[in-house]
Design goal:
Belongs to the membrane fusion protein (MFP) (TC 8.A.1) family. This is Efflux RND transporter periplasmic adaptor subunit. It comes from Hymenobacter nivis. By secondary structure, this protein is α+β, with helices and mostly antiparallel strands. Among the domains are: about 90 residues, conserved putative lor/sdh protein from methanococcus maripaludis s2 fold, CATH 2.40.420; about 100 residues, Beta Barrel (Elongation Factor Tu (Ef-tu), domain 3); about 80 residues, Helix Hairpins (Orthogonal Bundle). The protein has four helices and 23 strands. The strands form five sheets. A six-stranded antiparallel β-sheet has the order 2-17-21-20-19-18, with no helix packed on it. It has a six-stranded antiparallel β-sheet with strand order 13-16-3-12-15-14, covered by helices on one side. It is rod-shaped and about 140 Å long.
């Protein structure tokens, strides 16, 4: 009897315990999730100065490929590759012997033509005098006049031949067309070059130097206005950033805007001129042009890490009491670790910067002290944190 009674009591106790356990589980499942620990920063207004950036390439304002205008063999190179050369310096020499001989021959022909012309002139005068005395036939006098005119034309032709021969002889020496830096020679001593086709070298100036970049057609009025404005040595409207990220020290001035828009890309090329006293900018060097944005001024800024992107749109969480509301924002340019907010929040709004990954619109939050690390929402293994 006692045994049956004890067994019955144990059975009832187990059933009651199971029921209590199910109720506790149900309460646990229906309980509200704990607030998410977050850090907040107040949106502030500051003087935000920012630039539009464009990939750019440095270009020499004067650059020429040196080619020979006569055919022959290279006999001399009178420069050091890569050096600065003055205007008119003799750079290359081509075998001159045939051109000197041609010039001397042309001079000889000119002297012969002059002598013939002088003789023809003397004969013309003699026959004219005899004609006046009726001592010679008129036809002979007229022939003498024609011979003198022909001889004069032959002198002019011989003089033209001398000019051509002298020019060809001068072409055998290639000189610098302007002061600039000479490149690495494409030919060596003894190389045969052809007139007008063989590239010997390239020379370009280095100061001032241009920098080319492209802008969209909608920016043409803006850059036209920049082209017409004047700026001093301290003007920071247009700056160039070197390939290593270092800013170039000299300010830029728009030198030219291309004549037309590229119909395929809808862009136009702008050329900016920079002084280059230290020769740091080289033809073909790449970098970034930074143009001061006309909207620079007082703007709202917040930490960039507060931005949440969803479906191509940008949002932030604004703390309101013990919950966080999601606000859609319009972004301006990024300023290192900050970002300009053009629309969507107001100055002084408490913006969630830490813990945004775990938040939902209207979710409960627990604001941590500024600068304090944000604690995880749950304890080890994902279980709720102990109270």
């Amino acid at each position: 009897m006692n045994t049956k009674y004890l067994a019955l009591c144990c059975t009832l106790g187990l059933v009651a315990g199971a029921a209590c356990s199910k109720k506790d589980d149900a309460k646990s499942k229906n309980a509200a999730p704990p607030p998410t620990p977050v850090s907040v920063v107040a949106a502030r207004t500051t003087n935000a100065i920012y630039y539009n950036e464009y990939p750019a390439t440095a270009v020499a304002l004067k650059s020429v490929e040196l080619r020979s205008q006569v055919t022959g063999f290279i006999t001399a190179l009178n420069f050091q590759e890569g050096e600065l050369v003055p205007k008119g310096k003799a750079l290359y020499e081509i075998d001159k012997r045939q051109y000197e001989a041609a010039y001397q021959q042309a001079l000889a022909n000119l002297n012969s033509a002059r002598a013939s012309a002088q003789n023809a002139t003397v004969n013309q005068v003699r026959y004219q005098r005899l004609l006046q005395q009726d001592a010679v036939a008129r036809q002979l006098a007229e022939n003498a006049t024609t011979a003198a005119a022909t001889a004069g034309s032959q002198v002019a032709a011989a003089q033209a031949a001398v000019n051509i021969a002298r020019t060809n002889l001068s072409f055998a020496t290639i000189t610098a067309p302007f002061a600039g830096r000479i490149g690495i020679s494409q030919v060596r001593l003894g190389t045969q070059v052809s007139a007008g086709t063989t590239v010997l070298n390239t020379i370009s100036n280095e100061t001032p130097i241009g920098v080319d970049f492209v802008v969209t057609e909608t920016d043409i009025p803006r850059f036209t206005a920049l082209q017409n404005r004047t700026g001093g040595a301290g003007d920071s409207t247009i700056r160039f950033v070197l390939p290593d990220g270092q800013p170039y020290g000299e300010p830029g001035k728009i030198r030219a805007i291309d004549r037309g828009v590229n119909a395929q890309t809808g862009t136009i090329t702008v050329r900016v001129e920079f002084a280059n006293p230290q020769r740091r900018l080289k033809d073909g060097l790449s970098g970034v042009i930074k143009v001061l944005n006309t909207q620079s001024g007082n703007h709202l800024v917040i930490p960039y890490k507060a931005i949440v992107e969803q479906m191509g749109e940008n949002f932030v969480y604004v703390a309101a009491g013990d919950s966080a509301k999601q606000h859609k924002v319009q972004l301006g340019p990024r300023l290192v670790d900050q970002v300009v907010i053009l629309k969507g929040i107001a100055a002084g709004d408490k913006i969630v910067t830490e813990g945004v990954q775990k938040l939902r619109d209207g979710g409960k939050i627990q604001i941590s002290a500024p600068g304090a690390a944000v604690a995880p929402a749950g304890g080890p293994g994902g279980a709720p944190a102990a109270k």
